[in-house]
Amino acid sequence: MTTQQFSLIDQAIHFALSKIELQLSRQPDFPHITEGGKWVYTKDGVWTGGFWAGSLWLAYSETKDEKFRVAAESFTERLLERAGDDRNHDLGFMFYPSAVYGWRIAGHEEYVRAAVKAAQSLAGQFNPAGNFIPGWGFFGGHDWSGSVLVDTLMNLPLLVWASENGGDPHLLEVAVAHATTAIRHHLRDDGSVYHVFKFDATSGAPIEGDTYQGLSAESAWSRGQGWAVAGLAMLAGMTGRTDFLEAAKRAASFVESKLASDPIPPWDYDAVGPDVPRDSSAGAITAFGLVRLATVTGEKRYLQLARSLLEALSTRCLSSEDQESVLAHATADLPHGLGIDESTAYGDYYFLKALLAFRDVDSRATR
Ligand code: GLY
Hints:
The chain is mainly alpha-helical. It contains twelve helices and seven strands.
């Protein structure tokens, strides 16, 4: 065996697959976030169910072990009935890693029909006055119809994919319009992003930046930054648009400067101090985005940063034996006291996704 086969990246892939296999034997519902290292489950998959189904598809494509395929199909099928949910901006999170990837791997045509329907439900929420898809509907009894989340950038690849797979060409127009709005208003001059940007829902006029999960309106919530890097890199690759690519590079250059001394992101880039909680899930999402950016641009520096992030996660953030997840030290929502120094379904999914993507690009780059 060569040294390459024993790289930290390969070891982390092996670790993630073994944790996913163990998880399969535990509970018949969707793991969401952990409490005290044990998963909290949801029956319908809330907004995170696609990540568990996606982890199972990744495990199947990597191992060809039939038990992963059977489980991936079962969890994906449980999500399909939610394709018509037209007050949900998270449909890309729910349908891309599950139905779209599942269709690519196993070829089930009903997944395509459901994913296109989910894309239509997402695009149906588009506000043409402001050129955006709002976040959260009426979540928590509050009207969020004028609030736009940076996270939504990562839901737009579903629209682009659907426009090329039987959906209406209008889906692509919605994706481009929303991304253009987000680049104009969420992306700041230094490459950091607002978590939330508020608009007048009737006139569409921009009001101001805000946050829900970050430290303050003007801070850079690290997971939001990760969604921006990854979402923009995917959109740039899928559409070939140079404005999206430039925006992805700006968001990535902010991360580059922040992670130079420590590659594990703090939960918010403006939260400082040695004991500040980290967000490994932000690191995993960012790493995935950087690998995508490296493939779109051919620039090695993005791959180098992805490597340093993934190696740091692989040495400092793997869960212990009594923790049920793959990746420890995530922070789900610090301001609301949720999942601090715990694990998340999205952190686990993007960690494995980024490791596999990095390995495949890196092995091509070094062949
Ligand atoms: N809603 C997406 C996130 O918490 O990252």
